[in-house]
Amino acid sequence: MRVLGIETSCDETSAAVVSGTPDAMALESLVILSQDVHRLFGGVVPEIASRQHLTGIVPAVDAALRDAGVRVGELDAIAVTYAPGLVGALLVGTSYAKALAYTHDVPVVPVHHLEGHLFATLLEHANAAPPFTALLVSGGHTLLLDVPAWGRYTLLGQTRDDAAGEAFDKVAKLLGLPYPGGRPIEQLAATAENPEHGHAHYFARPMLRRRAVVTDEDYYDCSFSGLKTAVLHAVRASEKAGTLDHDRASIARGFQDAVIDTLVEKTYRAAKAHRRGRVVLGGGVACNGALQQAMRERFAGRGGDVFAPSPRLATDNAAMIAAAGLFRAMRGEWADPSFTAQASLPIPGLVSHSTTHSG
C-alpha cells in the first residue's frame, strides 16, 4: 500500500509518501515547509499560519509526489491530519486532501495528529512497535500512554497545565532566547557547569513525591506552571543582583533538569507498572538529546529499550501522518466526505486509565 500524507495542524506545511505495511514501512519522500515568520512574534499566529498553508500546500504535495516518483492516481490512500490543532490551519489540509481524493478517485483517511507522533519513530526503528509505553511531549501536549497494540491506547497521565514544550518556550522567552525555545535552552544548558558540583540552579521536581503510590491521582500526571514561576523568580533575582548574564546558562540547565527528571520518572513508573520493555518518545521535545540520554540511562538497569525519532520526524511532519494513515487504511477505515477539522479530539481508541494495575 502507498499513502500520501498531508500535515497542516500548526505551522508546518508537510507532505510525504509512505509505502508498505504497518510491520514494514518505507519512507519514500518527505517535504516540510517551515513558517519561520512566527519567530518574529514569539509564537504561532493562527491567521498567518493558515495563509502560509494556502501558499505552500500545493508545492509541498507536488514535491513529495515527484520525489517518490508516483502520481496521485497511483496512490492507495490520502491521509490528512484532521485533529487536533489550529482549526484554520487544519481546514486547509483537510479541504485540499478531500478535493484531491475526489478528483482522482482515491480514498481519504483522516488521521489524529497525536497518533501520528506514535508512528513517527516506527519509520526509523522497526522495533518501536507495540506493546510499549509512550511519552508524547510537544508544545501543545504532554501525554503518557500505555500502548498494548496499534489502535489501542490507555491514557495514564498528562500535564495539568502547561505542556512541556510550552514551558520550554516560555522559559526561553524569560531568558531572552529565540522561539521556539527547546533547542536554544538545550544548547545553553549544555554550557552550564556540572550541577553535581553545586553550580547550577536547582528547581523542585513537580509532582514527584517520594512516597507516591500507583493509586494516587497525580502518580502519572505532570505540572509545569509552578516550575515556570520558579524560573521567573530566579531570573528576577539574577536581574536584581546584576548577574543574569552569568546565571542564564545555570538557570536553563536547572529548568531542563527538572523537566527531564519529571518526565523520565513518570515514564519509568508507567513502564514498570505495566511491565513494558519498550519506551517510545514522540513530539518535538522528544528530540532533546539530554532527555533521550536520561531516559536510556534510567531504563538501562531493567534492560528496557528507548526509541526516539530523529529531529526531522520529531517535528510536525506528514510522514508520521502517512504512516498512521496506512495503518488505518489497511483496517478499511475510509472517511465519509463530510468529515472536517476538529480543534480538540481524543485519539481514536483512547481509553481512560483504571486504578487497577498489573504490578
Describe the structure.
This protein has 359 residues and is an alpha/beta fold. It is built from 10 helices and 11 strands. The chain has helices at 46-68, 87-104, 113-120, 164-174, 182-189, 225-241, 244-273, 289-300, 311-314, 318-330, and strands spanning 2-7, 12-21, 24-34, 77-83, 108-112, 132-137, 142-149, 152-158, 278-282, 305-307, 350-352. Strands 10-9-6-7-8-11 form a 6-stranded mixed sheet, sandwiched between helices. A 5-stranded mixed sheet has the order 3-2-1-4-5, with helices on both faces. Helix 7 packs across helix 8. The two termini are 39 Å apart.
Amino- and carboxy-terminal Cα gap: 39 Å
Q: Number of helical runs?
A: 10
**Strand content range:** 15-25%
Gross morphology = globular
Low-pLDDT sequence parts:
355-359
The largest sheet, given as strand count, sense and whether it forms a barrel, is: 6 strands, mixed
Radius of gyration: 21 Å
- Specify the helix fraction band: 40-55%
SSE succession: EEEHEHEHEEEHHHHEHEHHE
Query: What class would the helix/strand composition place it in?
Result: alpha/beta
How many β-strands, per DSSP? 11
* Average residue pLDDT: 92
The strand line-up of the biggest sheet is 10-9-6-7-8-11
